[in-house]
Design brief:
This protein is mainly beta and 166 residues long. It has helices spanning 70-74, 97-100, and strands at 3-12, 19-23, 36-41, 44-56, 59-64, 80-84, 104-107, 110-120, 125-131, 134-139, 145-149, 154-157. The two termini are 37 Å apart.
Length: 166
């Protein structure tokens, strides 16, 4: 998929078609720089030009072309807000979760499995990897994660002693 999830439509806001969006990004202000979004539900997607966006109390309020009243906005309640992958600004260091999810994780020449999910634990992220031996939770530490090849969809790790035992 070439679309990246950045938010969810919570509900209409006011009578003029404005939508209240729950941002799924660490920086809701990114919405202010966008020109277009895709609203997505299941297999259905619709593209919209943004008329205006504002951030208030950690939420995003969005007005798009073609949604002019509360009834039209109500139809998109619960829909995902996505953007083209090309519109995601590069990070100065590190990776976006969506870039990591789906990667093949190796220790040496041994395939441990596919990185299914990044879990935020507070101290450090944990990578949930599913493979032939079940699920492995790998701490996202520099001492563990040796190399990440985003274009090659591969991560190389050195597991802490005892992680696979038990």
């Amino acid at each position: 998929m070439d679309k990246v999830l950045i938010g969810e439509v919570l509900r209409p806001h006011g009578l003029g078609g404005e939508m209240k969006i729950y941002p799924l990004t660490s920086s809701p202000e990114r919405f202010l720089k966008l020109e277009k979004v895709t609203l997505w539900r299941g297999e259905i997607s619709q593209h919209f030009q943004i008329i205006s966006a504002r951030v208030q109390a950690g939420l995003v309020f969005l007005i798009v072309e073609g949604i002019d009243n509360i009834d039209q906005a109500e139809k998109y309640r619960g829909w995902e807000v996505r953007i083209d992958r090309s519109e995601v600004p590069p990070l100065k260091e590190g990776w976006y979760y969506f870039e990591l999810e789906g990667m093949q994780v190796y220790e040496g020449d041994v395939l441990l499995g596919t990185l299914e999910q990044v879990l935020e634990t507070g101290a450090n992220d944990v990578y949930l990897v599913k493979g032939t031996k079940g699920e492995i939770c790998i701490p996202a530490l520099k001492s563990v994660v040796q190399q990440v090849d985003v274009p090659g969809r591969r991560m190389d790790v050195i597991l802490p002693p005892g992680l696979l035992e038990g």
